[in-house]
Amino acid sequence: MPLATLDTPVGRLAVEEVDGAIARAFWSDREGADATPLLDEARAQLAAFFDGRLRDFDLPLTPVDDAFHAAMRAAMLAIPYGETRTYGDIARALGTYGQPVGAACGANPLPVIVPCHRVLSATGLGGYSGRGGVETKIALLKLEGGYPLLI
């Protein structure tokens, strides 16, 4: 599967393409330099996001087969740049509980692109499964100006 990497302020991110869609984004120590039009566009959009020039990604993403995870992806994508929601907010909207929402955020295969960093606990930041953990979440929220107490 084609893979490309980009050095960002939160570490080297890799993006993987499968069947003409972005399937995964993850932190990687290795260099990936596959060139496809989609990977080139993903790298360009990620660079623009980290430079503060892009607020919403416009990339084809692999479909989600499970209805709950598809609803979670839609809920995370609906959170505007610079804003946050709580696990409880999303749970209420989806008719579920906070724990499965948190688990789905932690299992997000497309961090940064699908902004799980914008989902917080009712009493603070909550967790973050990406490299660097909560420090990476804080960096992403600061980048967006989305958590005023951190600025």
From TrEMBL:
The keyword DNA repair applies. Keywords: DNA damage, DNA repair, Methyltransferase, Transferase. GO terms for biological process: DNA repair; methylation. It catalyses: a 4-O-methyl-thymidine in DNA + L-cysteinyl-[protein] = a thymidine in DNA + S-methyl-L-cysteinyl-[protein]; a 6-O-methyl-2'-deoxyguanosine in DNA + L-cysteinyl-[protein] = S-methyl-L-cysteinyl-[protein] + a 2'-deoxyguanosine in DNA. InterPro entries: MethylDNA_cys_MeTrfase_AS, MethylDNA_cys_MeTrfase_DNA-bd, MethylDNA_cys_MeTrfase_DNAb, MGMT_N_sf, WH-like_DNA-bd_sf. Residues 68-145 form the Methylated-DNA-[protein]-cysteine S-methyltransferase DNA binding domain. The keyword DNA damage applies. GO terms for molecular function: methylated-DNA-[protein]-cysteine S-methyltransferase activity. PANTHER family: METHYLATED-DNA--PROTEIN-CYSTEINE METHYLTRANSFERASE. This is Methylated-DNA--[protein]-cysteine S-methyltransferase. It comes from Thermohalobaculum xanthum.
